[in-house]
Amino acid sequence: xxxxxxxxxxxxxxxxxxxxxxxxxxxxxxxxxxxxxxxxxxxxxxxxxxxxxxxxxxxxxxxxxxxxxxxxxxxxxxxxxxxxxxxxxxxxxxxxxxxxxxxxxxxxxxxxxxxxxxxxxxxxxxxxxxxxxxxxxxxxxxxxxxxxxxxxxxxxxxxxxxxxxxxxxxxxxxxxxxxxxxxxxxxxxxxxxxxxxxxxxxxxxxxxxxxxxxxxxxxxxxxxxxxxxxxxxxxxxxxxxxxxxxxxxxxxxxxxxxxxxxxxxxxxxxxxxxxxxxxxxxxxxxxxxxxxxxxxxxxxxxxxxxxxxxxxxxxxxxxxxxxxxxxxxxxxxxxxxxxxxxxxxxxxxxxxxxxxxxxxxxxxxxxxxxxxxxxxxxxxxxxxxxxxxxxxxxxxxxxxxxxxxxxxxxxxxxxxxxxxxxxxxxxxxxxxxxxxxxxxxxxxxxxxxxxxxxxxxxxxxxxxxxxxxxxxxxxxxxxxxxxxxxxxxxxxxxxxxxxxxxx
Length: 503
Description:
Belongs to the fatty acyl-CoA reductase family. GO terms for molecular function: alcohol-forming long-chain fatty acyl-CoA reductase activity; alcohol-forming very long-chain fatty acyl-CoA reductase activity. The chain is of the alpha/beta class. Strand 1, helix 2 (29-41) and strand 2 form a beta-alpha-beta unit. It has 20 helices and 13 strands. It is globular.
């Protein structure tokens, strides 16, 4: 704590006391956990304005009600339910000029002290025009609004991605040179047809693997250009997965990335993947990311303001290479848990394994995934139901192709500045906003997530576990009988061929 003597220490909760906050992307996976943590651990925080648009016929007020009804907010409701009244929905659309906000709502942001920009498109296959609007233009529009409106601004945290410069296999906590001028791209959005921009993608991006990483990297350059006008910090999460501790263990609300892979394998749908089994994936728990974002804002608005007013700190929210997960080990452990506590809607016995042999991969893909899905769809159709398995397999294969660049490569991330965020906290703040990550996330972190995934993501109540176990046992028996029959037929075929050849 010697470093604290160099500045006037203000606790995290005190920093947010009576301060209004503005958040984009508050309805996303990380955004929800960030909102919950702010409301629970900073009880005297001011209003939290959450940018959102109407969706599926629901008003923004109804969407806020849906958001806080999640199990994620159960602990907050029990400890301080009144805090939920501090959430103020604000209509907007990040793809529009001025974020699609009404003038009166922009005026309401005049008292905002802290802003978090989480909203972005995380689709890897978005057309370049859409990715520019959601990831670059939204950042620029937000900064322009805050610069002209929020005169008492203390900190703005831009949430990027650890893969914003994926050509670097060792990623330092610094800005990298831009691949293109972001202002030129913003101007090009309205000048050129989407097809023209897509055709120019490879040349413009210096062969970036997709529009997501390319535009997120350029959004960091927007931050760099505004660093002297607003107090900025950048947080780069790696692959964000379920909570490790707060407010409940193992919470997740989407099928993205490894979660979708594990669930699909658990249902018996996915039985192979084209990837190096020994490669590692850098996973970071979502509650750790939320704490990092909060501490980045706190440090930017307190310590950095005193020491370096135009600083632009960059924080890689990631784990060490040793803590990262090996794909094969992750999937093998996952299958173990899925055998112990299977899903009630399992379609077949979880099995299979990833492979780095392209021919073996396609053989497995055809004979263990596509062909069974086709045959089952025929049966489903014959029973008068709507077939769905081939469509699902096509979607899974499309996702696998989109992720191929990332699973076939590995990265290491510098985290000195991120770790320092915890080191400079006093004992009380460290207990509330610090974190501990085990040496390996393959163990209890994965194990503790399966029941919450089953409950909250798959909507599978605990009462169905005995039924699911009986169902899986029957499937295992049938699967072994089929294997014996197939092996028997192969033996008979070989014997007949050998016998016929000897005549």
